[in-house]
């Protein structure tokens, strides 16, 4: 269970990081 929880948090971290990195790209597409 402990591993599952920590893994879940890691997935959430990378998911939010991916969104933050994708935001500028989508903004550039909208500007264009």
Can you describe this structure?
This protein is mostly helical and 32 residues long. The chain has one helix and no strands. It has one helix spanning 2-31. The chain is rod-shaped, with a radius of gyration of 14 Å. The chain starts with a helix and ends with a helix.
Describe the structure using short key phrases.
single chain, mainly alpha, 94% helix, 0% strand
Report how far apart the termini are.
Answer: 47 Å
Shape: rod-shaped
The average pLDDT score comes to 78
**Given the helix and strand composition, which structural class is it?**
mainly alpha
The helicity comes to: over 70%
Low-confidence stretches: none
Query: Given the structure, what is the number of helices?
Result: 1
Quick one: biggest sheet?
Answer: none
* Relative strand content: under 5%
Overall radius of gyration: 14 Å
Briefly characterize the structure.
The chain has 32 residues and is mainly alpha-helical. The chain is built from one helix and no strands.
Write the layout of secondary structure elements.
Blueprint: H1 2-31
